[in-house]
Each structure stands twice: as structure tokens, then as C-alpha cells.
Known about the structure:
This protein is of the alpha/beta class. Helices cover about 35% and strands about 25% of the residues.
Amino acid sequence: MADKRMRRKAANTGSVRSNYRKRKTVTASILIPVFFLNVSVPGASIWAQTNRISQTQSEDKQIQDDLISEDKQVQDDLISEDIQTKDQHAVTFAQLNDNEVFLKQSQARVCTLTASTMMIRRAAMLSGNQDWRQITEKSVRKYAWAEKTGLKWNFTAAGVSVVHKSLSSINELIGLLDKHPEGVVIYNARKPHAILVTDYTDGILYCSDPSNDKPSGRYPIAQASITAESASRCWYVKSPVNLTVVKTDADRQSEQAANGLMYRVLDQEKKTVSCTGRVSDDTTVTIPETVILDGVEYQVVQIAEGAFADAAKLKEITIGANIAEIEPKAFYQCKKLRKVTIHAQNLKKIGTDAFAKIHKKAQILIVGKQVETFASLLTGTSVPVTATVGAGKQ
């Protein structure tokens, strides 16, 4: 590419430089007879020769100015091309965190491999690799995996070099994320599992957990199988370096925290949002009817897929009256969840396994709607057979 640019630059300026050399020759031919030949020249002739010299020098200066202008234009064109090339490869925050980018592990005990594959896919996207979708757990495995021992400390796959190091604190993790928008894989040796930590935004760590018991996509680390505090090792990308992601205003507003819960805007005109998860592991949670984000009041109409899945400490939850949909696995495997109060005036849908594996003796109390009507919505949600469903108090 550089050679082509230089050849083009030479072609653009070659004719100008040739004219400049000719002018220099003419100037020399004039100067020689005047200054080196000691002959008598009439005054008018000397004046004419001097005038020609002055005119030639002026033309020479113009040619030099033209050369400088031409060089500047070529440099500007090259810079413009570089910017256009970078723009073509620019990846937005939303694209980097699209659900399509993330993966689920194909089998047990390969969480480190799957998490690393997601990280490599993101690094490939940021470096302009249009074939990042071809990077799969299987394609990375032959370079990164050692049978019987697991993920290698250091390896290169799909042109991305990955290295390993011990991890001493959350601050160290945040420091790595600041330099690595593709994310960092963390591993808990005591509870053997790995996740990809994707970013640290507005004081919250986000991740994607390769476990099939967890939702797909990006969400707060509070919803993952392990915590950042429990991680003792990590893998990160050594090269390519200086990768960057483009954050737009829409990206920054895509998910926001309020009162310990996360929300995503569904419809700006209708002013509706989905509750997508939690920021911390609280024992009691209330999903409100409305929430104020950036000074605007929204109705909370949905609980997103896997929003509270595997919330280890959650014991009681109250669901506001504007909720129309509870998505699949919303409360999956909340083993201590004993009391669910639903203000069900607008509830129309409960997704598969929304209440699967909650406490065996859980109480689900319905407020504002007939229990029989609500019970029909619970079909296929895997509510424990020992749980009770009844009417709650207004």
C-alpha cells in the first residue's frame, strides 16, 4: 500500500519537478555569459538580461511554491485515505456487544476455552477482521487447548496472541479492561469456572458467562456464576495492541442503573423499559412500576431473560403492576427465593423456566388478578411442584 502511494505521489509531482530543473538550466545559461564572460555589453542589453534573470527567478519561486502545495495535497490525500480505512473498520460498542458475538460452551469443563474464544472474536472485530464469525470454540481449540490440562497459559489463534497472568484485585482487572476493550477472561480456581469480563462502565463490571445455565449476551457480573473478587487468574490479548471501540451516545444510554437495578430502553416514544438485571446481590428486590432515567420517567414493562438468574442471595421479590412480560429464565436457579409477589394487572406472558429451580417451598402470590388465570401463564415455567400459588393482599 505504501509503495502504491509513493508511486502515485511521484507521478503527481514529477512533471512539476521536471519543469523546475529546466528552469534552473535556463537560469544558469543566462548567468554564465553575464558574469563569467568579461565582455562589453550595452546597458540596454544588460538591463534586458537582468530582467530575464529576475523573471526566471520569480518563476522558479512559483514552481517551488507549487511543489510545496502539491506535496501538502498528496499528504492530505493519504491522511484522508487512512481515516476512511479506519472508519471502515470502526466497531461500535453496540456491535461489539451484540448477542451474536457471544458463545455458550459446547460441553462441561471448557469454560476457559469458550470465554477465550469470545475474547478473540472481539479482538478480531476490533482489528478489522471481517471473518470473525469463523472463529469458534472448535477452531481455537487446536491452538489453545491441551488435553487433560486445559487452556494453555499462552497461545496464538486467528492471529490473536493471548497470555496469562495472576490476578490480585478488582482494581487490577479494571486497569486491564481500560487497555483491552476486547475484554479479559477471569477464572475462579476454587469454583472452577471462567467468564469473559467485557467492560467496566459507569462503575459496573459487565460480562458474558459461557455457562448454559446463564443468559446469552452481556450483563452485570452480579448475574454471573463467579464474582470478580473470587478470580485468581486471567487471560488477556497481548497482540494486536491499541484496539479501540467507538462509543456513541446511544451506546452509553443503552443500559442504565437505577436503585440497584439495570434497565434497557425498549421504546423511547412509549417510554417503556426492560429490567435487565441487578447491580448487587440483595436479598430483597422490588421491581417498580416506573423508573426515572436521565430525568425521564419510564414504565417498567418487562423482566429480561435471565435478569435474576442464579441470584444466590435473593429471598424475596415484588414485581410491579406494569410488568407485561417475564422472559425465560428470569429467576432461574434462585435457590433461596421463597416469596414472589406479582402485581399482575398487565401480565400477559411468562417465559420458559422463568421460575425453575427456585426454593422448593416458595410462595407465589398474585395481586389484582384471578389465580386461575395467572396459573395458566405458569405452564412450562417449571415452578417447583412443592411451591404454592395463591392470592396476595392488595
